[in-house]
Amino acid sequence: MSDVGKTNVVLVGHGMVGQRFVEALVEQAGGRVAVTVLAEEPRRAYDRVHLTSWFSGTTAEELSLCSAEFARQHQMDIRLGDPVEAIDRIGRTVTTRAGRSVPYDVLVLATGSYPFVPPVPGHDADGCFVYRTIEDVEAIEAAARGARVGAVVGGGLLGLEAAGALTAMGLETHVVEFAPRLMAIQVDDGGGEVLRRKVEELGVTVHTGAGTQAVTTGADGRVSGMTLSDGSELAADLVVFSAGVRPRDQLARAAGLAVGERGGIVVDERCRTADPHILAIGECALAADGRVYGLVAPGYAMAEVAAAEIGGAGTDGFTGADLSTKLKLLGVEVASFGDAHGAAEGCVEVLYSNTRAGVYKKLVIGADGRLLGGVLVGDAEAYGTLRPLTGGALPVPAEQLVLPASMGAPVRFELPDQAVVCSCHAVTKAVIRNAVTTHDCLDLPAVKKCTKAGTGCGSCVKLIGSIVTEELAAAGIESMRGLCEHFAEHTRAELYEIVRVKGITSFTRLIDEHGSTGAPGGDGCDVCKPTVGSILASLAQGHILDGEQAALQDTNDHFLANIQRNGSYSVVPRIPGGEITPEGLITIGEIARDFGLYTKITGGQRIDLFGATVDQLPQIWKRLVAAGFESGHAYGKALRTVKSCVGESWCRYGVQDSVGLAIELELRYRGLRSPHKLKSAVSGCARECAEAQSKDFGVIATAEGWNLYVGGNGGMTPRHADLLASDLDRDTLIRTIDRFLMFYIRTADRLERTASWVERMEGGLDHLRAVIIDDSLGICADLDELMDRHIGTYRDEWAETLADPDRVRRFVSFVNAPGIPDPTVRFTAERDQIKPVLFEKLEVRGR
Amino acid sequence: MTTSIESTTTLTVEIAGETGWMPVCSYADLVPGRGVAVLIEGHQVAVFRDRAGRLYALANRDPFSGAYVMSRGIVGQRGEVPTIASPMYKQVFDLRTGECLDEDEGPDGDPAALRTWAVRTR
Ligand code: SRM
Ligand SMILES: Cc1cc2nc3c(=O)[nH]c(=O)nc-3n(C[C@H](O)[C@H](O)[C@H](O)COP(=O)(O)OP(=O)(O)OC[C@H]3O[C@@H](n4cnc5c(N)ncnc54)[C@H](O)[C@@H]3O)c2cc1C
Ligand code: SF4
Ligand code: FES
User: Of A338, A637, A752, A787, which sits 20 to 30 A from A20 (CA to CA)?
Assistant: First the structure.
């Protein structure tokens, strides 16, 4: 349908780039264009980059990039499942497979790529797959159910992702790569070797330098395996081809438009073909710099250029893109940037390789000493600083940049001003410094707002933070060492001491007596209030919802439940050690059913009930408390769970009662408020099924007693715990944990997990042992007493709340309409349970 | 403003709606430093009381999450400005004007400011 007076834009292909193009176009020229989308796939654009997450449960709906609402709002005419078969350039129409003829003023081709399948015998047998669309992964998953062995042809980025998916589904997995190494495009031989070892450690068998000669089939015509180029046979029940992609340029080719020697529709810097009415963008285009880009970011850049071209806005054009990448493949970090293969004449390489530790780092240095590029495998931490340095002189000897920190002096150097720190928004260090010095941006949020740096993928935020701190220091503005503007002179640890020594029991007294200039008499803020609330609670100063303390708590503590994205709350009863009776399970099930809550087994060996309104919380807890459950403190910076493995009672390898100890520890430390959350686990033998070494404190049974590990962490920066002491008897173990926890609570920063606390401790583990085992500071008696006080005064917060009508009164949606629940908290159904309805106004634009 | 407990327990908090002042709760319902939500004329309004006893009334919808939760945030100060921090993603707003001090726009592209209402005690 063509609207009179509007430019009729027809998009062929609704992939990632096509969708971005439409978004940019409606933003620039919304009222002036009528958009028709002709798509081959049966669904609207989705996130192909995260296709692999489909295997871990991400739904097609979650992958979607274009909501029905977006399409409706912009009156897009989207026709799915009907590919374009021909372009009539003279009549300016396209014809679809179903025979529809659609006229255009401007035609945009965004047809992407197709997976290349080597034409070997058997390549199309039953059991052969490619890896590009949701239909592909659905088919692979279905086939994997009855299969034992899977083979992936191609050891590049996609091949390894596919291999990861097959292993995750329990298949014995082989990767067959023609090149002599994995990820041949991004990494070099040395990096490929380290990557290979790491991938093999994950149980994937890698065959490099091996071609696929034929796919063999059984009597039923189904795949039975492969013949490799060296003549060897590989048995396999399914084969996934991931041997590269080719641009889908057939339409343009047939319409007489120029295509490159190795494919790709030829376009200029403004994404135009030779026909002024036809543009091409994304993976199907051969860009002005003579390359076909197989990554999404360059495609997005082309989409913006094409939209500006049609919308009439000025544009710099698309002249090429940076191919730097940092990925995490099968848990292995791989980064490659600039001239990764050292192609420049006269360049030299500086490298560090350690196959035992699985680390490989190479920098390519030009004849003139400038950094040209590099490859990092296994540890890509330095990518954030190296990428912006690329193209410039190195501030320190290159050797220092590749050696592990433990082997050289810590590297300290300055980035040059012209270094691009945020590549998403092309922001240089100079611009960031300028924001601080001339625009008075005094912290990270202000700089982000002012420069846009850090608001794209977010990978540069850490670096921006350190530049801002440096710049402030240089300007003589000391970055605050204290907690916040209200306690600028005091760290959390100091406030803890003040509260403890002076016996302070209220925030107002603390801020009035010890706040910074201007703070006395004031309200504090959302940083200092919860911190002080937590300190008061750690020192066992009464119920957290009493009097003034109530006003200090974060919303989660305030309602003793975790807030969810639609304003509803979740409920987590404590299930110590993960042990629960059938009656307990039934009770939880009944309560969830009666209140219509979504239930899920958490990663912490207990059950979370989601979707309660504020009004329902006391009613739900009344029933839970009556059945003997108590608060699980999922909402607090407090002890969460002590996970356990089944241990010696049942397991044939167990050497101690791990469940018994886990329950004992969980009951001992329940309710203990701390600078950040605390997690623990107990394993019954060294097989470590409870993952104790990833916990703040973890215990592993030995034949003689218990080994205690501390400072472990999952989360964003995982860290394995350190062995603090071995073969402890029960009493010594518990005393040592008591002191460890109390020492942590006393000295850690706000929101600092034990992992980073242990890491930054001067003197390290030895110091920690000296303090809590040998009592070198003479504080152990204090620590013990504090823990005894905590245990002696522990009471279930929920039972206490329910017993006090004043505390219960706050659980209403509206004070002037008690009994009326918040009407905006609504749910739909998903997989037979409820799911929050999100707010329609919030169709967040795809990034 | 300093008011003694005796005189505040009987006070009523009122908000100026389209049809005039409407009582919404008693002053004693408000804990210093925290808020409550009320319904008036089909709007959800978050009402706060700070440590000094001053009252504020703003829209209860958090522009960043879309959830109606502002009343469950923490009252504080940034410099001289009395503030409320959203409990969801912690953006901070000026309690007097509703202006967001951290970001100008919500994810939907609309200005992130909260509507305000006049509020008084009687
Ligand atoms: C429910 C649960 C996910 C699940 O469905 O399994 C979960 C849910 C949340 N996690 Fe978690 N985490 C859950 C297990 C974990 C685990 C696994 C574990 O405990 O064994 C980890 C990694 C282990 C670790 O903590 O070291 C984990 C690492 C995190 C982190 C990262 C912490 C870090 O140090 O980096 C956060 C963010 C934070 O706390 O700042 C987080 C934060 C959250 C929050 C609180 C996010 C939020 O603010 O809303 C989620 C609360 C949802 C809710 O309402 O309950 N969650 N979270 C799990 C609850 C376990 C429980 O029974 O208490
Ligand atoms: C598993 C996987 C992982 C990836 N990971 C990354 C990554 O980590 N980083 C990265 O940068 N890139 C990654 N990519 C590549 C990225 O997905 C592509 O660069 C991006 O999708 C290209 O967008 P596009 O719109 O050009 O093509 P596509 O997204 O492929 O869209 C093209 C669309 O056009 C349709 N089409 C084709 N011909 C016609 C026709 N004649 N008529 C109508 N419709 C037609 C196709 O069916 C398709 O829907 C990955 C790809 C895959 C498959
Ligand atoms: S915080 Fe934890 S539960 Fe929430 S989405 Fe992230 S990983 Fe999942
Ligand atoms: S590099 Fe800065 S946000 Fe992506």
Answer: A338
Instruction: Name B58's Cβ contacts closer than 8 Å, sequence gap at least 6.
Output: B45, B46, B48, B70, B84, B93, B95, B98, B114, B115, B116, B117
Alpha-carbon distance of A255 to A270, in angstroms, equals 20
pLDDT reading at B8 higher than 60: no
The structural domains of chain A, ordered by start, are: 7-114+247-311 (3.50.50.60), 128-243 (3.50.50.60), 324-413 (3.30.390.30), 415-479 (1.10.10.1100), 485-553 (no CATH), 649-795 (3.30.413.10)
Residues in B 28-87 with any Cβ partner in A closer than 8 A: 29, 31-34, 36-40, 44, 50-52, 61, 65-69, 72-79, 82-83, 85, 87
C-alpha distances out from residue A733 to A667, A709, A773, A782, Å = 15, 11, 11, 18
Looking at the complex, report in whole angstroms how far the Cα of residue A446 sits from the nearest Cα belonging to chain B.
7
> Are A204 and A173 contacting, i.e. CB atoms less than 8 angstroms apart?
yes
Is residue A316 within 8 A of residue A301, CB to CB? The reply is no
A723-751 pLDDT, tens digit each: 999 999 999 999 999 999 999 999 998 88
The predicted-structure confidence for B33-84, as pLDDT tens digits, reads as follows 999 999 998 899 999 999 999 999 999 999 999 999 999 999 999 988 999 9
Nearest CA among A359, A366, A319 for reference residue A339: A366
pLDDT at A174 over 70: yes
| A678-721 confidence digits (pLDDT tens) | 999 999 999 999 999 999 999 999 999 999 999 999 987 789 99
What is the residue-averaged pLDDT of chain A? Answer: 89
Q: Tell me if A559 sits within 8 A of A811, measured CB to CB.
A: yes
CA distance A518 to A673: 29
The packing angle between helices A658-669 and A730-747, to 10°, is 40
Tell me what the mean pLDDT of segment A550-562 comes to: 90
Virtual CA dihedral for A328, A330, A333, A334, nearest 10 degrees? -80
So what's the pLDDT on residue A59? 87
Measured in angstroms, the CA of A554 and the nearest CA of chain B are apart by: 7
Q: What is the 3-state secondary structure (H, E, C) of A817-844?
A: CCCCCCCCCCEEEECCEEEECCCHHHCC
Burial environment of residue A766 by CB neighbours within 10 A (0 to 12, 13 to 18, 19 or more): exposed
Distance CA A311, CA B95 (A): 41
Residues A125-142, mean pLDDT to the nearest whole number = 95
Q: How far is CA A475 from CA A438, A466, A478, A640, in A?
A: 11, 14, 8, 43
Closest-CA residue of chain B to A546: B31
Q: What is the pLDDT of residues A313-337, one digit of tens each?
A: 877 888 877 777 777 677 788 888 8
Q: Is the four-CA dihedral A389, A390, A395, A400 of positive or negative sign?
A: positive
For residue A461, the ligand 4 atom closest to its alpha carbon is: 2
Domains of chain B are: 5-119 (2.102.10.10)
Q: What is the DSSP string of A356-374?
A: TTTEEEEEEE-TTSBEEEE
Report whether A361 contacts A371 (CB < 8 A). Answer: no
pTM of the model: 0.55
Q: What is the tens place of the pLDDT at every residue in A285-297?
A: 999 999 999 888 8
| Residue showing tokens 């991938």 | A199
Which tokens belong to A625? 């408390």
Give yes or no for a contact between B108 and B84, defined as CB atoms under 8 angstroms apart.
Answer: no
A672 Cβ neighbours under 8 A, 6+ residues apart = A538, A638, A639, A678, A741, A745, A790
For residues A173 and A195, what is the distance between their CA atoms, to the nearest angstrom? 16
Strand partners, A610: A570, A598
Among the listed residues A712, A740, A667, A587, the one whose alpha carbon sits nearest the alpha carbon of residue A659: A667
Strand segments (E) across A288-425: 325-329, 332-338, 348-354, 359-365, 371-377, 420-422
A318-327, A460-469, A732-741, A819-828: lowest mean pLDDT where?
Answer: A318-327
